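Quick question: what would this complex look like in 3D?
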Amino acid sequence: MRLSRMVICFALMSLAVPGVLGRLGFCRAAAAAHAPVVPDTGTASDEGALFTAFAPVLRHPRCMNCHSQGDYPRQGDDGHPHTMNVRRGPVGFGVTAEKCNTCHQDHNLVGAHLPPGAPGWRLPPPAMPMIWEGLTDTQLCQSIKDPKQNRNRNLDQLVEHLTEDKLVMWGWNPGEGRTPVPIPHDEFTAKVKRWQAAGAPCPAK
Ligand code: HEC
Ligand code: HEC
């Protein structure tokens, strides 16, 4: 690959026609491709990659259906509003007569389209709705670390929640007909702990 780029580069150089400057740029790039690989020294943006390595789990519909905009949970991989006009309610457990645990148990009910479940099934409370939808990776990273938005969790507690909480764990075992989150749980935990060990850096932009 690189060699052929060098060859094309020299071939272009030998054609003394207009546009030579652009070709020189091409050639510089080709030469740079030959430069020795500089070891990763961990600049700010590189460290941000420790967060983006596991962010696809947080962005997955299994998580976003409770962490999206609006005053209601969502359903399915397309995140459509929850049927039957289910609402967040005053503390996140739904409104009178439509409390989440009227239908959602502490475990998945067996069968397609039956309510999934985990202990404490609910939405975050309206005063601290933990909405991630619409956030950039940087904002999402800052939001989950912010005690004012994550219910006063320090980093250790946040990591514990991310790797052990029952509602979070549900994402790996979401019940019949639902796609689980994309990264195996042990791999996800390792990535989160690597991020934690580096001081939980957020992507620069
Ligand atoms: C009247 C019964 C009922 C109530 C009340 C109810 N749900 Fe549901 N919920 C369901 C059913 C049934 C499903 C499964 C739908 C399906 O798979 O087609 C579901 C699915 C969901 C899902 C989708 C999971 C996914 O990722 O696809 C979420 C999230 C959810 N409910 C949250 C809540 C929350 C939070 C509350 C309370 C604020 C609540 N539900 C109240 C019946 C209910
Ligand atoms: C059924 C709804 C529901 C689902 C599904 C859900 N969460 Fe949550 N999540 C909550 C609730 C409720 C809280 C608030 C709990 C508390 O403060 O104790 C919360 C809080 C959090 C927090 C801490 C607050 C914050 O924003 O930093 C994190 C992190 C989190 N969830 C991650 C996840 C991840 C990752 C998934 C998917 C694998 C997920 N959640 C799926 C309801 C849900």
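Answer marked as accepted. The CA atoms of residues 155 and 199 lie 9 Å apart.
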